[in-house]
Amino acid sequence: MISLLVAQGKSGAAAGSPLSGLFLSEKIKDPAMHAEMLVLQFSREVVDQPIIYRLVKDFGLEFNLLRAAINPRQEGLIVMELRGHPKDFRRGLKYLRDSGVKVKRVAGEVRRNEDRCYQCGTCTAVCPTGALYLERPSMAVAFEAAKCSACELCCPVCPARAMEVRLNRSAV
Ligand code: SF4
Ligand code: SF4
Predict the structure, then answer these.
(1) Nearest CA to ligand 2 atom 6
(2) CA quadruple 9, 15, 16, 19: dihedral positive or negative?
C-alpha cells in the first residue's frame, strides 16, 4: 500500500486532480487513530479540484491509496484507507460530502462463491489490492481473502455474480 502526505511546494500527483499537492511517503501508523476503508467517487464537477490535498492538510488525515482512476473532466474513483484521530476523521468525511464527493464506507466482507465462478478473469482487471489475480502457469483466477479490502469493485463486473458482499453489522 502507498501512503500520501501533503507536499511543501512539490507534488507527485498530476495537477488538477483530487490528488494534486501530494507525494508518496512512508506509511505512518498510530494505534490511537481511527481507520476505515473508503471508496470515493468524484463527479465531473469536482474531479479537477485538489480535494484530497485539503483533506490531508486541513484535517491532519493520512491515507493509503489502493486505487486511483482520475481523468480530467471525467468522473474519478479512489479507493483508500483513511486514517486519523476520530474527531478529525468525522470532520474530514463531512468535508468530502460537502464538497460533492460520494463517500462509501466499506463495512463488510467480500467472498467468492466458488460454485458460481467460471474463471473468466474479468475481476482481476479491477481489483486494487491484488486479492484477485491470475495464477501462472495455470492461468486460474485465484482469490486471496486476506488481501481483500472489501471495496466491492469486483462485484458489479462479475458476470456470474460470484463476488458476494457480507455486511459486518457492527460496523454499519
Ligand atoms: S469475474 Fe466472476 S466469474 Fe469471472 S473470474 Fe472473477 S469471480 Fe469468477
Ligand atoms: S472487494 Fe473485490 S476488487 Fe475489492 S479488494 Fe476485494 S477482491 Fe479486490
Answers:
(1) 148
(2) negative
